[in-house]
Amino acid sequence: MTPSTEPRRRAPEQRREEILDAAVRLFCERGYEGTTIRDIAREVGITEGLIYHYFPSKAALVAACWRQRSWHAFAMTMIHEADNRPIEEVLYRLIRGHLAVLYEHGTEVRMHAAEMLRDGELAEISQRYNDQTQYAVASYLRRRQVLGHIRPDVDLGVVAECILGSTITFFVIHGRLPKDRWASLSERMAVQFSRLLTHGLIPHPETGA
Question: Is 138 among the domain residues?
Fold first, then answer.
């Protein structure tokens, strides 16, 4: 690839990132209903039509913000690097990372959850992304199960749902704590929950399960 062609190839990717950055800022400041595609286009300095070139609807745009600026992107990276790590370490990092992302993007998370109750399209797109994340976590666990590292009688889809659901519930209950208290409590939760899950997942030779 020549230097003259690389900027043209990268420009659409950069523009998409600029749109996502602006959308996250405005959605957090004004809420979903209070932000229009025109507002986002003005923030980036482009036309509304160009935004629709990347995202077919506002619901698709906010879902992309959720997917690429929060947990989904982190989880995909974590799972990609997980196969050679101890199971308890992987589970700890998934849980701790999810909690950290939820707290860091708390305003966006709460806005997104509220808007899903009002917007069926957004709820459907978000569910699809959430299903993809759960499937990726369960697939990682199944790979370890095939290797004999996880008991064969465990439903790993349920385990993946428990990981995501428990961390979200923990954030809902404790996510407004001051940063120092949140850091201490969420660390304890990640350590204890990952330890509990690992104990339930790994084979126990003395019991045959």
Answer: yes
